[in-house]
Amino acid sequence: MVKEIKMIQKNQTWELVERPTNRKIIDVKWVYRAKQNADGSLNKLKARLVVKGFSQRYGLEYLETFAPVAKLDTIRLLVALAIKKQWAIHQLDVKSAFLNGFLEEEIYIDQPQSFVVSGKEQMVYRLKKALYGLKQAPRAWYARIDSYLVSLGFNRSVSEPTLYVKKNEAEIQLIVSLYVDDLLVTGGDQDKLAEFKAKMKDMFEMSDLGLMTYFLGMEVRQAEGKILLGQRTFTLKVLSKFSMENCKPTSTPIAIGMKLKPRRS
């Protein structure tokens, strides 16, 4: 919780002001989560300060909310291209990504529980940047990261707004795929790749996770000349949920009694 508050203050997300009489004050709450590794083991414990966005009013506290995310087909296409080009895929994780999105609306929130400023209990925070839980938070973050990637010389795909390509004449230098706060980066120019990581770290608080190993529930293993995708942990969770851990395995799951007919050309 202390780390979360320090991150919010570091990003200059809010400012303490007198409680306005003509504006709605939105409540906040703490949400706790255990983040796991690809094998299901504990990675870290996280505390997130979340705005109760369900109480926001359209036209006053928010307008547009839509923000694109990468399609699974795009991720698979990126993997296929990396294999063909013999490129490695790297993964970056932006810490508290939504705290970087600038707000256009005037929004006030209560001081969070356990972190009320002594002697200023009646004051509230006015948000300058987004917080998790706000309806427009994903859109504000996407607008921020999109404008920064474009400023670095990337071209946004017309058909996939979360896919960015940087070229040197006709040669592809880097490809970036964005899924909320996770970025996949691949390319053949290692100098450009290192330069890109450095610029991203200068702009945002983020972690360099190295080679992609776990993404969207997929376990990834990159070996020489190939990339292996699997969902063993997810499969075991599904089996456990339905008490099927001891069921007999089969190489081709199919409904009992179903008959297959050859397709006519």
TrEMBL record:
Record SUPFAM superfamilies: DNA/RNA polymerases
Source organism, top-level taxon: Eukaryota
Residue intervals of the Reverse transcriptase Ty1/copia-type domain: 11-254
Protein name: Reverse transcriptase Ty1/copia-type domain-containing protein
Organism annotation: Gossypium anomalum
High-level lineage: Eukaryota, Viridiplantae, Streptophyta, Embryophyta, Tracheophyta
